[in-house]
Amino acid sequence: MESDQGRRLLSKVHGKCAKPAGAGTAWIWVEDHSGLFHFPTPFAEMSLAAKADALADLLGPLLAKYVHVAGIVISDAARRRLPLPPNEDALRPAAQGFRRGLPRDRVRVAS
Predict the structure, then answer these.
(1) Which of 88, 84, 81 is nearest to 101 (CA)?
(2) How far does CA 14 lie from the centroid of its chain?
(3) Rounded to 5 degrees, what angle do the CA atoms 81, 82, 86 make?
(4) pLDDT band, very low/low/confident/very high, at 78 (cuts 50, 70, 90)
(5) Which of 21, 59, 66, 94 fits 17 for a cystine, CB–CB 3.0-4.6 Å?
(6) What is the mean pLDDT of residues 65-91?
(7) pTM
(8) Going along 1-111, which residue ranges are E strands?
């Protein structure tokens, strides 16, 4: 099975960026349930820093186009993984990546 998750993500974020136009500064939050971070793809195998750079390259033009958007948060919305992954930070020139393991039974989940 092949898919272009980058194109799907870009389309989703593009729509979210357009909605709050004229409403002031906004942050866009996307919970990825499509497997962008989990299917065995080159992206999923990248380091956190490389993922942050790749997402900055993909989504940076939207931030230039939609000046009311202060930033875009992409969460992998992972199901419970045990053991939890170690915390990791990747501070990059155009993006920041953070990995935090959060047990589902200890966080509020929106549906």
Answers:
(1) 84
(2) 13
(3) 85
(4) low
(5) 66
(6) 84
(7) 0.81
(8) 26-31, 69-75, 88-91, 96-99
Residue 111 has pLDDT above 60, yes or no: no
Q: What would the pLDDT profile of 15-54 be if each residue is shown by its tens digit?
A: 999 999 888 999 999 887 777 777 788 888 899 999 999 9
Q: Are 38 and 44 in contact (CB under 8 A)?
A: yes
Cα(79)–Cα(103) distance, rounded to whole angstroms?
9
Structure tokens that stand for 75 in this block: 């969460």
Q: 11: exposed, middle or buried (C-beta count within 10 Å: 0-12, 13-18, 19+)?
A: exposed
Using the CB atoms, write b or e for 22-34: b if 16+ within 10 Å: eeeebebebebee
- Per the CB < 8 A criterion, the answer to whether 55 and 63 are in contact is no
